[in-house]
Write a structure and sequence with these properties.
Length: 188
Amino acid sequence: MHIPEFLYHYYEKDQGPFLNITQNKFEEAKKIQNNISVGFNSKRPPNYIELRFALEKRLKEGFIAKGGKPKRNDPFYFTLGPCEWMKSCYKNPDVVKISLTDLKPEQISFTYPDSMVSFQFYDEPKLAKYRKACNGQVFLLNEMKELIDQYGMPSEEKSLSQENLKYDKYIEVQVWDDAIINKWRDKT
């Protein structure tokens, strides 16, 4: 199976792309989350901000341990290939599409599926029925072909038809560098 050629960044159109709630201080991030009232993002648990900050620390540590060279404390989030389901997270969704070849491999990491989901499956015994060996791990670009060959590409269709794949909607990409984001902003 091949690796999709494009990354997709979904966002709230009225707010603009490339905003990460954890780029704010903890209290400000909580305030922002508490003011989200529409879409899937409004249904997050009360401890979401605590979980998100802790997860991003784990993602960064795992990325560095594999040789990644992050230039940010918090990543920008993308999906590997399109994911129509992501639009349900936003009241007025929009998307930025970037070629995978525009990124430096040492600046991107991957989780299978979404990072919050992947690490929850790894950490929580009660979620064992959804767990795969790839959960709770950070992957590099050179590992993606093997990962996709082993588990396939997640999709909305699979998640709706197979209970054990219920939460596997996409492969998440974490971009740890502002360069591609700044290049995209310069084009608009």
